[in-house]
TrEMBL record:
Pfam families noted in UniProt: Epimerase
Alphabetical list of Gene3D superfamilies matching this protein: NAD(P)-binding Rossmann-like Domain
Coiled coil, from the record: none
Domain NAD-dependent epimerase/dehydratase: 5-232
Chain ranges passing through the membrane: none
Protein name: NAD-dependent epimerase/dehydratase family protein
InterPro entries: Epimerase_deHydtase (IPR001509), NAD(P)-bd_dom_sf (IPR036291), NAD(P)-dependent_oxidoreduct (IPR051783)
UniProt-recorded Gene Ontology molecular function terms: aldehyde dehydrogenase (NAD+) activity
SUPFAM superfamilies documented for this protein: NAD(P)-binding Rossmann-fold domains
A GO cellular component annotation in the UniProt record: cytoplasm
Length: 313
């Protein structure tokens, strides 16, 4: 059944892939942009509105006018140039901006809110691949801890509000066209510039999510799927010793250098060391069983190959 869908973060990496899929599915789509200049680039939707999610009055006005059945939140504020500033901005958007969006959705009569969350925010736990029952690492240090706490607050707002059905989609590391893993992205520059090494005995697990699969997951949960949090990741969590050399080779970069744990802690920022050595991957079992979702790219190996035009077809 066609729905009226309001998309915040329409100009982001997931939003750009999501909008045409929503239209192909027959839904009426209103896209939110934060600025007039970015709004001008949005095409193929039924309506484009401009408002800042940190401005509750303006946000409430445009959401009410759109009269959506479902509100989708895919907005973030990460930056290629300053990772810490991007995490801080995104934390404010996740916590305060999400609260404003939920309040606006309720006032507009929407029955469901779908938000973008994170599958890499779990408390590290041995060698386990984690499901949605694992706790989020709200005690993590620094800007990462600030971001995880904002995600926990956002999920609590969305998943516990009695007046809406809330769904939190916990993506893994987003890759694909327009992301930091693309050939013009920051991850590609780091890897090809030998700025992202391996760490001896590093067992950090990364779960990946192609942007096509992130957009497809939103389509799956617009209606009918039980409210809750779902890991939206591929089928193959990968240790840094697997995915990093593979990405470097496919992306045309040199083989990564290898550091000892002591060298890594001295030369790299805390978050990078955490990701390479102790971060845990996530399982998509609940989402597969509940929604019947299957990733278009079941493994990051095929997804990386497609990203660099090495995949047949």
């Amino acid at each position: 059944m066609p729905l009226r869908v309001f998309v915040a973060g329409a100009t982001g990496v997931v939003g750009r892939h999501l909008l045409p899929e929503l239209r192909r599915a027959g839904h009426h789509v209103t896209a939110l942009a934060r600025r007039e200049d970015t709004a001008a680039g949005l095409r193929g939707v039924d309506g484009v509105v401009v408002a800042d999610m940190m401005d509750p009055g303006a946000l409430r006005r445009v959401v009410t006018e759109a009269a959506p059945d479902v509100v989708v939140h895919q907005a973030s504020a990460f930056s290629d140039t300053d990772a810490n500033a991007g995490m801080q901005r995104t934390a404010r958007l996740r916590e305060t901006g999400s609260r404003h969006l939920v309040e606006a959705a309720i006032e507009a009569g929407a029955r469901r809110v779908v938000v973008q969350s994170m599958a890499d925010a779990y408390v590290p736990n041995g060698h386990d691949v984690l499901d949605e029952e694992a706790p989020l690492w709200t005690e993590a240090p620094g800007y990462w801890g600030e971001l995880v706490r904002s995600v926990a607050a956002m999920e609590e707002t969305v998943l516990t509000h009695a007046e809406i059905d809330g769904v939190a989609l916990r993506y893994g590391a987003l890759y694909g066209p327009g992301t930091e893993y693309a050939s013009d992205g920051s991850m590609h520059r780091r890897v090809c510039g030998s700025a992202l090494p391996l760490v001896e005995d590093g067992i950090g697990l990364m779960s990946f999510t192609h942007v096509d699969d992130a957009a497809g997951a939103v389509l799956e949960v617009l209606d009918g799927v039980e409210p809750g949090a779902y890991n939206v990741v591929d089928n193959e969590p990968a240790e840094s010793s697997e995915w990093l050399p593979t990405y470097a080779r496919m992306g045309g970069g040199p083989a990564p250098l290898t550091l000892t744990p002591e060298q890594a802690r001295a030369q790299l920022d805390w978050l990078t060391v955490h990701q390479l050595t102790e971060q845990r991957g996530a399982t998509n079992f609940r989402f597969r069983e509940t929604a019947g979702w299957r990733p278009v790219w079941p493994s990051w190996r095929e997804g990386f190959a497609a990203l660099f035009d090495l995949w047949p077809g």
